[in-house]
Amino acid sequence: MKRIDKKIFASIANYQMQIIPNKKWFVIYYVQDFTKGILLKRKYYGNINKYATPEERMQECLRIKELIEQNKPLPNLRGARKIEKVQVKQNFASPIVLMYQALDQRKSRIDYLTFNHYRSKIKCFADWLNVEYEQITIGNFKREIAEEFILHLKQSGRKNNTCNAYRTIFYSLFSDIQELLKNALQFENPWQDIVNFPKMVNPYRIYETNIEKYISETLPIYDEQLWLYILFVHYGFMRGPELINLKIDNIDFSGRKITSAAANTKNKKTKVIAIPVPLYKEMMRYRLHEYPKHLYVFSKAGRPGEKQVSKNYFRNKWSNYRDVHNIDKDYKIYAWKHTGMLKANESGVDVKEIQKQANHHSLDQVDQYLANFSIKNRSHLMNDFPEIGEVPNIRKQDKQKDIDLQEIKEMLEIITKRIS
Description:
single chain, hpI Integrase, Chain A, 3-stranded antiparallel sheet, alpha+beta
């Protein structure tokens, strides 16, 4: 670990512009010591006292002062007194202070949800650090401390993916700190070589057919808007931020597609999804196409409106519904997306189409989701696998598709007539 001098500010001892015997002129400046978390006081004499007049000495002092304030190197001349420590209470060397500072610099480049997510993780780290290493500075923060914190998270019951997320976020923030302190301190990123825990893909419980049927019969009566929200998650593979920001204008009813702005998607790219038949039917039943385009699809009014719901609005509603109907808490609201992906795959939908609908960056990511489902969810494979020599029976599925497409065609004709 290498410390580099960082000049903070400078002042001049000029003795009221007089030349007094045995009183040398000098320039005072301070250096941040990030290893000890203190300021170091330094005096620089240089060639100042070789000048004969106060005016010449002052001119040289001002030149030195300018070099210090511009963080430029000073001539390496003798005559400087021994360094004196200035015991000023400072927190500039605290890892937590520097992490918050690095995060603040990102504020204009990230959305508020990500910003608050990072802040909450730093707060968790600060609470632990204040107990275990109260006086730690950035210069003394070692990899062993970082590993100890990750182990603490694991022992506290955090899942593997959560522990890995902490490491990734803190590695990124410490990289920014390295850049911030590049002229003051050089150090290795302590989070760099910490090995991730095995990734746990799809921690959600998939909805079984009997549970799905019960919910489809009771939820529309309990809360129609919550039911519609779940349909968008299930059939559109859409995430919470996409849905709470969704407006009527984002839905192309005639083209049967939905566009999510890049600011609301996970990978910050514009997302366009197709509207499957079951979702389209419900959208028509709710008459979404008749609402003004500037309204949010999901609002506090329980129907399309101008007041946007919060990020936990539907999660809390879903929790209340589960309690009322005695549904296991393992059934999470976001699991409707994973259940939909599985059912689409089992129904013969190509994995490439599922990838585009879910906006995943690769087919491997989709495969990771689908490969981690329980064997009991592979009902088509267990029950409908044809014997050797038999022709697969897909006529029934094709017939149902023809019926659904005909219904969609009729709905589109009605919408076209209303628009014209």
